[in-house]
Amino acid sequence: MASSSSCPPRNAKKLHDVFLSFRGEDTRDNFTSHLHYVLSLKGIKTFVDDQLIRGDNISRSLLDTIEASSISIIIFSERYASSRWCLDELLKILECKHDYGQIVIPVFYRVDPSHVRWKTGTFGD
User: Fold this and answer.
1) How far apart are CA 52 and CA 89, in angstroms?
2) Do strands 103-108 and 71-76 pair parallel, antiparallel, or not at all (unpaired)?
3) Tens of pLDDT, residue by residue, the chain (125 residues)
4) Which one from 25, 67, 89, 95 is the annotated catalytic residue?
5) Are 17 and 69 in contact (CB under 8 A)?
6) Of the candidates 35, 18, 42, 19, the residue with the CA atom closest to the CA atom of residue 109
């Protein structure tokens, strides 16, 4: 009988406790960098995609990193939904939440949470 687990099916060693999903142009040099710094000070291993080369498709290694993280923090900013890359990350994060019980924490940075929930404003476009 299969057991329910909050760990990804791959028994990979967790390299990161937290995966940060964010729109770099909106939050990289302010909110996200401060959050990453504070988490690091507390000894929380946090992944920030600051050294990845952007392309049309999200890389397999990034998807694996999301899957191997215990927690994902999604920083919804005004232009988050306009990024295909961010939406691909979000899809993978939600799959991990559903399939593995990954903890997902939304942060609303200068956006109304109802716009995200009801897909209005820039999130409806």
Assistant:
1) 13
2) parallel
3) 333 444 444 445 567 899 999 999 999 999 999 999 999 999 999 998 875 656 656 688 889 999 999 999 999 999 999 998 899 999 999 999 999 999 999 999 999 999 888 988 878 77
4) 89
5) yes
6) 35
Residue 112, C-beta contacts closer than 8 angstroms, at least 6 positions apart: 121
Tell me the two tokens of residue 95: 């799959």
12: left (phi over 0), alpha (psi -120 to 50) or beta: beta
Entry pTM: 0.83
Looking up tokens 């990350």 gives: 89
Q: Clarify whether 89 is annotated catalytic.
A: yes
